[in-house]
Amino acid sequence: MSVELVKVKEADDGMRLNRWFLKYYPNLTLGRLQKLLRTKQIKVDGKRAEAGLKLSAGQEIRIPPLRDTETGSEKNPELTAKEIDFIRSLVIFKDKNIIAINKPSGLAVQGGTNTHFHVDGLLDGLKFELEDRPKLVHRIDKDTSGILLLARNRKYAELLTKAFREHGLQKTYLALTIGCPKQLSGEIKAPLEKIGEKMMVSPQGQSARTVYRVVDNVGEKFALIEVSPLTGRTHQIRAHLESIGCPIVGDDRYFGPERKKFNLFSDKLHLHAYKIDLSSLYGKKTIITAPLPQHFKSSLQAAGLSMTE
């Protein structure tokens, strides 16, 4: 492999040099990068550079000949037309900074053991007019449906990541539960700790807070509940609702085998990321809502529940 001169893209303006290499040469180790920089084999605009150098769009990076094992990237294989049509069919909001998709239940956000079809692997289909694929800035459970936000540029990737980390965006979920809370609205303050495969209420757990409001109910049998997590613990909504005696329909982890008795409903998890408020980010009223999936709508109809207040 010969020496390459690579120009910094607009999307990478302001990125540190070490992060740039992590993005485009993920198999190049930090130690090897440091050695190449120290021996002046990597240069920016013909000058010696440090790992922490902030890049500017248009600058030229000299890439020396690298080993075959160092040049391999983790790019996704080219998508089929069917895959592109599928991921684009999920888009419910798009502007120059953000894309929101309505993720179906059962579709994982990222890959893992025995998970080869996932949102991350389909993001090339959401480039549209841009060169770079959008970036994941948060996750929702594989079996949870609803809004998943993607950043279309570096600036909004950082803004959204910070907002999710600091819980600065109000998120509203809808859950169909077996049972109805005794109080029709309130806040669940119960610390959660991972015990085995489940998050459980435990005095030794991390602080967790969830506010809820019953939208509609059939006595004490079923309820449609609007839920907003104030903290971001794993499976927080699922564990909190189960802890007050209202497990979510289709939740095979927090409801157990007895859920099979309710053949009135689909086996899919009935937890939907319904609404997210981006007003604080945009400086004007900007609220995204995701229509309910068909299995959720069918179950509400079967139970005689309605979203109309």
Q: How would you describe what is shown here?
A:
The protein is of the alpha+beta class. Helix content is 21%, strand content 26%. The strands form three sheets. Strands 5, 6, 7, 8, 9, 10, 13, 14, 15 and 16 form a ten-stranded mixed sheet that branches. A hairpin with a 3-residue loop joins β13 (209-218) and β14 (222-229). The longest helix has 12 residues, at 154-165. The mean pLDDT is 90.
Radius of gyration: 23 Å
Give me the count of strands. Answer: 16
Poorly predicted runs = none
Arithmetic mean pLDDT: 90
Helical/strand content category: alpha+beta
- Characterize the biggest β-sheet: 10 strands, mixed
Binned, the helix content reads 10-25%
- Topology order in helix (H) and strand (E) letters: EHHEEEHHEEEEHEEEEEEHEHEH
**Share in β-strands:** 25-35%
Number of helices: 8
Distance between the termini: 66 Å
